[in-house]
Design brief:
membrane; 5 helices; single chain; mainly alpha
């Protein structure tokens, strides 16, 4: 089972190594947009939307890796001072009853919008924008799948460990 967990971790780790470059590209494009607008008086809606697309892609596709690296937002009211055994129980509960069901619900409720967007190849958000809103909406189920895969990986590891005494 740990081999399955390693494979699932590898998916999010590999994807993170590729999409991390979007952060740099996004900053450079935004810098070029600002320079173009305020120095040269040139403006491009498509370029502005490309920053939105890159930011969305970076955020949505890196969420699974963020969970893997344990860098996600955690409400530490009880967790921070809990014993390792209690932390393990909280993690298992959170994955099984909060994270996985919410990702499944988000996938279920967003799917009709994604499907309809692909059916009509939904166009730009603004006139002159990028004609690929259908790709942007596809990030929602991709986000859910990547987070669910990482959650399953973490659950495998949690159940494989002996409970700390």
């Amino acid at each position: 089972m740990l081999r399955v967990s390693d494979t699932l971790d590898g998916i999010n780790r590999g994807l993170a190594h590729v999409i991390r470059w979007l952060a740099l590209i996004m900053v450079l494009v935004q810098f070029a947009i600002v320079v173009g607008r305020y120095v040269f008086g040139v403006n491009s809606i498509a370029a502005q939307e490309s920053v939105l697309y890159m930011h969305s892609t970076l955020f949505m596709l890196a969420a699974g890796y963020t969970l893997l690296a344990d860098k996600h937002v955690r409400v530490d009211v009880f967790y921070a001072s809990a014993a390792p055994r209690t932390k393990r129980r909280i993690d298992i509960f959170g994955h099984l009853f909060l994270l996985l069901p919410s990702m499944a619900a988000l996938t279920y409720w967003s799917w009709p919008s994604v499907r309809n967007s692909w059916a009509i190849f939904e166009g730009p958000i603004a006139v002159g924008g990028i004609e690929a809103v259908f790709l942007l909406k596809s990030l929602i189920p991709a986000f859910c799948v990547l987070v669910m895969l990482q959650s399953v990986s973490l659950l495998i590891r949690l159940f494989s460990e002996r409970a700390p005494q």
